């Protein structure tokens, strides 16, 4: 390998893409440390304590001057912010500048959940997100991050893209942040440099085509498809635009850009139409390497209207009908629009009635989580869940107890510490007014209900 520790074939490829002068700048940039950035959860009230500056294409994203120990910051465990690459936050600019209609969205390759939390925030109460991850342990991490974000508008599924075939023409927006050869991660991840080869690029490109051959069909007429990678080469980027437009009927979409952002637009000509992609180079943009494109499905494409089914595929999942759902919302002090389901006696709430869509999805996919699990009811008392604590839903009938930072870390470690003058029963534990979880004061002792598997071990 040459001095710069880059594979020779990769150097040849980048020289072609950038020219000699820019390639020198690129090589310097990828040997500099990367910048840490976070995106705030606008549904939770919180302001950053660390020195920071705004990310130009994101209203909620900030570069941090230094990288703090996130694990020891209780606010991250409360879902107040998410650590995310600045380039990835460009999706926020796409959603806002095109005013993409809200509805049923799919994030097909979603773990650990950076784009899903962003999409969930954009949808708020006006849409529902299916956040899917094929690899089971990663789907678990995705579920945790969705629970921490707390908006109650997402379903987490653990499926192969092939399982989505019955959902053709079903989604208003499909996002695929595809597994790729990771050239944009060379700065952060030295292993990505070592694993890079021309053969691997070809394997990645073939895998992406298999995924997109499914994903491209799931978008309904007039809906949108966003495809992204963290790699620079044309096989995994421009060639995919060509593939998608040849396989399916998609129209071009162009994103407004500020020249100061230095994001490079690329154009692909197919059948007399110009399609657009956007490349983020680390020597031009403060962020890791990234590529993104957005396409609009043509008006002639198929729309699948969901129909009522008799039962959910899951034998223990039951619908709570509308009248009882409204009564539950009133009893719990929520906004009145929630739709409830029960699973093994526990109540789950979705932020709005998307019942037909939910039924259809649950018929075909392996559901890991949905909405907000509220808890079980014993006579007129609720046994609340951790998921409810972390959600943005009110917890009006429960007293709360605010912890200092040191105490909050002890709580998250599940260690015992003194909490004088607590009321008896369930108490919501908060840090900077952000709910962190529950304790139950039994009078003679206090039980910490922070989930064992989420406990911090530092
Ligand atoms: C770039 S990562 C997604 C990052 C995520 N969108 C985020 O913003 O946090 C790509 C994901 O695709 C998943 N994946 C790997 N092989 C896949 C396949 N054949 N089909 C679908 N997804 C796959 C990986 O497990 C990984 O979670």
From TrEMBL:
<dbReference type="InterPro" id="IPR023267">
    <property type="entry name" value="RCMT"/>
</dbReference>
<dbReference type="InterPro" id="IPR031341">
    <property type="entry name" value="Methyltr_RsmF_N"/>
</dbReference>
<feature type="binding site">
    <location>
        <position position="133"/>
    </location>
    <ligand>
        <name>S-adenosyl-L-methionine</name>
    </ligand>
</feature>
<comment type="similarity">
    <text>Belongs to the class I-like SAM-binding methyltransferase superfamily. RsmB/NOP family.</text>
</comment>
<keyword id="KW-0489">Methyltransferase</keyword>
<dbReference type="Pfam" id="PF01189">
    <property type="entry name" value="Methyltr_RsmB-F"/>
</dbReference>
<keyword id="KW-0808">Transferase</keyword>
<dbReference type="InterPro" id="IPR027391">
    <property type="entry name" value="Nol1_Nop2_Fmu_2"/>
</dbReference>
<dbReference type="GO" id="GO:0008173">
    <property type="term" value="F:RNA methyltransferase activity"/>
</dbReference>
<feature type="binding site">
    <location>
        <position position="177"/>
    </location>
    <ligand>
        <name>S-adenosyl-L-methionine</name>
    </ligand>
</feature>
<dbReference type="GO" id="GO:0001510">
    <property type="term" value="P:RNA methylation"/>
</dbReference>
<keyword id="KW-0963">Cytoplasm</keyword>
<dbReference type="GO" id="GO:0003723">
    <property type="term" value="F:RNA binding"/>
</dbReference>
<feature type="active site" description="Nucleophile">
    <location>
        <position position="230"/>
    </location>
</feature>
<dbReference type="InterPro" id="IPR001678">
    <property type="entry name" value="MeTrfase_RsmB-F_NOP2_dom"/>
</dbReference>
<keyword id="KW-0949">S-adenosyl-L-methionine</keyword>
<dbReference type="InterPro" id="IPR049560">
    <property type="entry name" value="MeTrfase_RsmB-F_NOP2_cat"/>
</dbReference>
<dbReference type="InterPro" id="IPR029063">
    <property type="entry name" value="SAM-dependent_MTases_sf"/>
</dbReference>
<protein>
    <submittedName>
        <fullName>16S rRNA C967 or C1407 C5-methylase (RsmB/RsmF family)</fullName>
    </submittedName>
</protein>
<feature type="binding site">
    <location>
        <begin position="109"/>
        <end position="115"/>
    </location>
    <ligand>
        <name>S-adenosyl-L-methionine</name>
    </ligand>
</feature>
<keyword id="KW-0694">RNA-binding</keyword>
<dbReference type="Pfam" id="PF17125">
    <property type="entry name" value="Methyltr_RsmF_N"/>
</dbReference>
<feature type="binding site">
    <location>
        <position position="160"/>
    </location>
    <ligand>
        <name>S-adenosyl-L-methionine</name>
    </ligand>
</feature>
<feature type="domain" description="SAM-dependent MTase RsmB/NOP-type">
    <location>
        <begin position="14"/>
        <end position="298"/>
    </location>
</feature>
<dbReference type="Pfam" id="PF13636">
    <property type="entry name" value="Methyltranf_PUA"/>
</dbReference>
């Amino acid at each position: 390998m040459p001095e710069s520790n880059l594979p020779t074939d990769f150097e040849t490829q980048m020289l072609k893409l950038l020219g000699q002068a820019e390639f020198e700048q690129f090589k310097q940039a990828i040997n500099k440390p990367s910048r840490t950035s976070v995106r705030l959860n606008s549904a939770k009230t919180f302001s950053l304590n660390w020195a920071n500056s705004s990310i130009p294409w994101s209203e909620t994203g900030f570069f941090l001057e230094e990288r703090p120990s996130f694990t020891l910051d209780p606010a991250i465990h409360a879902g107040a912010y998410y650590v995310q690459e600045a380039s990835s936050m460009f999706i926020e600019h796409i959603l806002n500048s095109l005013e993409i209609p809200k509805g049923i969205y799919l994030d097909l390759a979603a773990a650990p959940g950076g784009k899903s939390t962003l999409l969930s925030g954009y949808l708020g109460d006006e849409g529902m997100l299916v956040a899917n991850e094929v690899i089971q342990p990663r789907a678990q991490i995705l579920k945790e991050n969705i629970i921490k974000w707390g908006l109650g508008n997402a379903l987490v599924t653990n499926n192969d893209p092939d399982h989505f075939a019955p959902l053709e023409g079903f989604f208003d927006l499909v996002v695929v942040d595809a597994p790729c050869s990771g050239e944009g991660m060379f700065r952060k991840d030295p292993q990505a440099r070592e694993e890079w080869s021309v053969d691997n690029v070809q394997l990645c490109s073939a895998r992406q085509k298999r995924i997109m051959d499914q994903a491209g069909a799931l978008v309904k007429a007039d809906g949108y498809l966003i495809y992204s990678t963290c790699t620079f080469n044309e096989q995994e980027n421009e060639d995919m635009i060509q593939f998608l437009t040849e396989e399916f009927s998609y129209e071009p979409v162009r994103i407004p850009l500020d020249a100061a952002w230095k994001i490079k637009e690329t154009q692909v000509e197919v059948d007399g139409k110009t399609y657009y992609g956007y490349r983020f180079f680390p020597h031009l943009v403060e962020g890791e390497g990234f590529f993104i494109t957005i396409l609009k499905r043509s008006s002639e494409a198929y729309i699948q209207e969901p129909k009522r089914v008799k039962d959910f595929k899951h034998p223990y999942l039951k619908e709570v009908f509308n009248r009882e759902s409204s009564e539950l919302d009133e009893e719990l002090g929520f906004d009145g629009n929630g739709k409830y389901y029960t699973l093994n006696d526990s109540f789950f709430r979705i932020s709005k009635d998307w019942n037909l869509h939910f039924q259809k999805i649950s018929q075909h996919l392996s559901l890991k989580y949905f909405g907000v699990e509220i808890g079980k009811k014993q006579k007129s008392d609720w046994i609340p869940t951790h998921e409810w604590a972390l959600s943005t839903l009110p917890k009006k009938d429960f007293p709360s107890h605010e912890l200092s930072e040191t105490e909050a870390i002890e709580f998250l470690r599940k260690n015992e510490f003194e909490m004088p003058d607590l009321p008896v029963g369930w108490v919501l534990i908060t840090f900077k007014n952000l709910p962190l979880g529950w304790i139950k004061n039994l009078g003679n002792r206090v039980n910490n209900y922070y989930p064992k598997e989420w406990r911090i071990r530092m």
